[in-house]
Structures are given as structure tokens and as C-alpha cells.
Amino acid sequence: MSPEPQKGRAPSIRDVARLADVSHQTVSRVLNGHPSIRDETRQRVLDAMEALKYRPNRAARALVTSRSRTIGVLSATTGEYGPSSSIAAIEDAAREAGYFVNTANLAASTPAAIVDALKHLVLQDVEGLIVMAPQVRVFDVLAGMAMDIPYVSLQSTGQSDHRALAVDQIAGARAATQHLIDLGHHEIVHLAGPQDWIEAEARMRGFLDAIIDADLRTHPPILGDWTADFGYYAGRELSRYRDFSAVFAANDLMAIGLMHAFRDAGLDVPHDVSVVGFDDIPVAQHVSPPLTTVHQEFREVGRRAVALLLGELRGEPVSQSEEIVPALVVRGSSGPVHAALVHY
Amino acid sequence: MSPEPQKGRAPSIRDVARLADVSHQTVSRVLNGHPSIRDETRQRVLDAMEALKYRPNRAARALVTSRSRTIGVLSATTGEYGPSSSIAAIEDAAREAGYFVNTANLAASTPAAIVDALKHLVLQDVEGLIVMAPQVRVFDVLAGMAMDIPYVSLQSTGQSDHRALAVDQIAGARAATQHLIDLGHHEIVHLAGPQDWIEAEARMRGFLDAIIDADLRTHPPILGDWTADFGYYAGRELSRYRDFSAVFAANDLMAIGLMHAFRDAGLDVPHDVSVVGFDDIPVAQHVSPPLTTVHQEFREVGRRAVALLLGELRGEPVSQSEEIVPALVVRGSSGPVHAALVHY
DNA sequence: CTTTTCCATGTGAACGTGAACATCCGAACG
DNA sequence: CGTTCGGATGTTCACGTTCACATGGAAAAG
């Protein structure tokens, strides 16, 4: 037999108090882990909560504490592996910390769309923000809206802005480029991401650093949009010129599209052209040839972002953990330069 | 000069009321679009809200209405394109309808993990649930928890359970299989998904239906886990037997892994083996050979799920929209059967 | 033995909003 | 011209929780 045939209304803290024969405040204390509660009393309250199937009312709590226990994620993904994994990891980590996550997706990267998404998150009363979107623009908009919400950015240029997570994209890109140089390539093209993404900018920087250090000719980078389709398009254009022996693409999807175009153009990867990507998405090792790329720990990045943000929310000294340096994974898409092509 | 130097507390409905020289209730009426408000009054209130930069307090509203305006998404993804896109679309649609979305990700598909995720969503006071996870188990758990939250499932077996979204996965799988049969294949293997996913079950059903209708030999299906790595593993095993001329994989990732394994084993796709996938993820057309697959409209599915759920929340008659029938996309990975292999 | 302190608990108020009911006023109706 | 009605607005209360403060008693300190 059930203890009480709930009469419409959900049991509140006061119902529990009545059943446990204490004041509602004592129940509240049990709920919040207040130290000054006798064990026996606490147990009685817990039993009563169990009996009534009591569940705290989040809205009431949020109202009085003016804390929503919710963090917002501003993303701009259409389902790509990287951001999606990070978001999933963010949710896991937040859940573990007792926080909720609300994601707003950018339909476009126009200021209007950004304002829209931010307004939605603000309406939701998020306590903090994790930004995984064209950061440059987002920061502009954020500044313009004069909001004082703590935020954390998912990727950085390596210069430790305290609110940015330190993933050394520059080092990763540099390693990828150096790998090509070590293989003997002198004419390397960079297929970059949209330049309003900090990641894209950082990867280009790393690429240029390596090129300049090796005193090689710099080809003008191609500005892409992260998609495999664009990679294919770029590959078609590139194969008309063939004044290069390797391409470093700013992400795997573009690299895969690129390889497709080269294949269609009769170019062999890696014999005629070497290709290196960035991200190490799960299919990267299964395409033909398996893609040499830079491995990113997306889940780890998500976890750290949450840790960083929650730390800031608690007012803790921002303990920047060690930088994550993404690791180069050499597979079949990159190989030694082929003499015939070097002298174009 | 700013109207009022906000003294700590955010402006409330009463502050607006004072400034507009009306009662707080009038402000509330303006907020909720009550009809009986004089235009002049409404304007005065709106001006006051603007001047104070008033923003309604969600918690207070939720407390008094006991409606959170939040829907929950139970997902089980590690960043795959399909579910991720659907989730993004769900967020967009929900936002447009003034709802918030809270996603809980399943760490594992164990009952404990499911209970965990559901509890989190319930704590968040979600008004309804969209399930994109091993539905079979989730439904069991849901039943066991005796929760009366309306929910909608993202994919169905085709039999219109009123709470399930009608994507005719069976028809899609059938079309894929029939395509192989039409090409002359008689020995077709199915690389299935985990059987506690309704999608996996449906795709296998469609496969079997086509096979049986064509009176072909049924190979025992291989039960996979949706990942490319598993596809590769399965491909390695399969290439040891070679008593088949085509494989229908339950999703593209597994299909791509499969092709990789066949390549490694010296089998040519599609000459020696035809491969068909399911989903049409963005890389599908860029792998080598481009993958024949069944195209799914993930975003549309997400949108419809929201529409269905919100309809149910409003108590509207469940207007099941037309079924979505995914479309076969023929590319290079499938071709006519090669005689030498038919007689294995 | 008195005073202080601290622990365990209770009391009342406040958070910002919407619902129910009350009130006022002018128009329509008889 | 009185009565009724409904539109426009105001008043009061409730939602479920936490916070600030109060209280009583026992232990510690003098």
C-alpha cells in the first residue's frame, strides 16, 4: 500500500517535514547537507522523503537562490564529430557536477543569429557560457551586448587568455606541417578553415610558422568552410595547377574531400600528393588511403572546459591545467615527395 | 544616461509596474499577451520594460505555472553525424517554439546508466522527452520508473505507435537490399546494428523482407555496434569466407570500415564485393569508392519529433504527418555481381 | 554555580510571477 | 433612467524553497 495517495500536488518540503515531524527548514538542511543535523533526525527526514517520493523543485530553488545551475553552450555545428563529441563530454561532466546544460546552435554565423542564440541562453538564466563557435564574431557580439556572464572559449591561440582553454592548435598544425617538410615536401598548400574561427586561425599560424622556419615558399592559403564538399571543390581547383606536392587541410573532412578530388583527377595520394588532416575523426583511419592527421581529444577538451567554467563560477583561482598538445598520427596519406612533381 | 543605476537586484515585474504607473498584474498581462489591455497602456508598459532592460524570471514563472518549458533529449551518441544533426535540429525547433532543450547522454546502455540519465532529466523538470537511444531498454526502464512524462521516440518500426515518429526504416533497408538484388546479387550479408535499437531492428527487418521475397539464401546477420572500427573488424572476418558478393551495412560508418577491410584483404569494391550503407553521412560520397547508401533527413526528423512532442504536450490530437521514406542514393560502391564470385 | 558558546532546530519573511477574485467605469439594454 | 454586462485594471494570495534570525538546551569555560 502506498503511503499517501498523492492528491494532485507534488509533495513539497513541508509535506516531508510534517511526516518526519520536523520543521520544513530542517528538511531543507538535510537537502543541502547542512552539518548541524543529528543523524537520527536526518534519517527520519530521508525516510519521509523516500516514502513520499519527494523531489525538490528546481524552480523554487532557483527563484530564491537566483542560481539556475545551468550552463550554456554556444555551438555552431551541423553534426560534425569534433564539436558533437565535445558537447557530449560537456554534458557528462556538467551532469556529474550537478549542473544542467543548455545548448544553442548557431543557424548562421551572422551577428543577428549570434544575438538570437545568446538571448535564448540568457533567457534560460545560464550561469556561464562555453563558446564553441566562430569566436571572433561571438566575442564582438558579447562585448556589444554588455553581458556579464562568465564564459570560456573552447580553443585558443595558445596565448593563454585566462578564459580560454589551452589546446595548442598551433603546435599541432606545426607538427603536421613539419611532418610534410621532413618528408621532403617544399611546395605545401594549406586548406584553411573560416578565419573567424580561432582554431582555423591557429592552425594557419602553426602552418605558416613551420613553413617560414624551413624557409619555404608560401602558397596563398585557401579559405574553406570545414566541409568535405568544400574540400572536394578545392581539390578540383588545385589539381588544375599542381604546383605543390602536399596539402595540409585544417580538418579531416576537408582532407577527405580533397583526396576524393585528387583521385578523380587521376592523382595518387600519397604518391603524387601528400595530404594531412586535423582532428582524427573516426573515419580518418578507414578512408583510402588512411589519413595522416592530428589527433584531438575532443572529450577531454569538453571536460576541461566545464572544469574551467565551474571553477570560475565558484570564484576559484583559475587553475589552468597543462596545455593539451594534439598528437600527430602518421598514416598512409602522406609519403615522401615524388621527384617528378617537385620540379613543376 | 542610463535610466536607473541598477542597485544589485535585477528589475522585476513590479519595478516595471512602478515605472509604467500600473499594477504588476497589468505588466504580467502584457507579458502574456492578455487581450484586455488598452494599446496605450501596453505601450507604456513595454517602454518601461525597455527602459529597465527587464527580463522575465524563468524560475519564478516556472514555479507558479509549474511548467518548465523544457524538453529533454535522451541520446546515446559519441558524436556521430546522424544523432548529432537531429539533436541540433531539435534545439532549433524547440527554441523557435519558445522551449528549451536539455540533453542527457547515455554513458553506457546499461539500465543503471539509463536510470541515471532519466533522473537527471526529471530533476530538470522536463515536460516531455525525446528518446534517441536504445529504445527497447529505455522503454523498459521508463515503464519501471512509472513516470508519466510524455515521450516521443525518434524512429519506429513503421507500425505507427502514436508516440513514435514514422521514419520508414524498413522501406529504406528494403530498397537498399532490393538494389543489390537487382544488380544480380544472391548472397548478401547484413551487418546489423545493436538489436536493442529500434532502427537496427527495422533495418534488419527490411533486409530480411527483401531477401525472403526474392527467395534468396539468408546469411546470418552480424551484430555490430555502429562504429567504423567494428565494420573493419567484421570485414576482416568476412573476407576469410567470401561466400557472399554483397554486404548491406546498417549504417555508413560500418560500411566504410568494411570497405577498408576489404581493401586490405585485396578485394575490390564494387568489383568483388558490393557495399551499401545507411544514413548518407557527409563523407559517404567522398570515400573511395563513393558509398551507395540510404539518405536520411536527420534534421527533418528532429524537427518532426519536436512538433510531435509539443503537440502532445498541448493535448492536441496527434496529427501524425506523412511518413518519411528515406531514399536510396546509388554511388560507386555497388555494382553488378561478378561471375567468378557467385560460385564460391 | 553562573556565564558563554555552540549545536540542533524552529519561525517568519522573501524571491518574482500568475491565478482568482474584486473593482471601477462606460456602454448596451430594457 | 436604472440595470446589467463586459472591458480594463487592481489586490491579494499561493507556488516551494532558502535565508536571517530566534530559541532552547547542553557542554564548556570561568
Automatic annotation (TrEMBL), chains A, B:
Residue ranges annotated for the HTH lacI-type domain, each copy included: 11-65
Keywords of this entry: DNA-binding, Transcription, Transcription regulation
Keyword NADP: no
MF term (GO), any: transcription cis-regulatory region binding
Pfam families: LacI, Peripla_BP_3
PANTHER family noted in UniProt: HTH-TYPE TRANSCRIPTIONAL REGULATOR GALS (PTHR30146:SF109), LACI-RELATED TRANSCRIPTIONAL REPRESSOR (PTHR30146)
Name assigned to this protein: LacI family DNA-binding transcriptional regulator
Annotated organism of origin: Orlajensenia leifsoniae
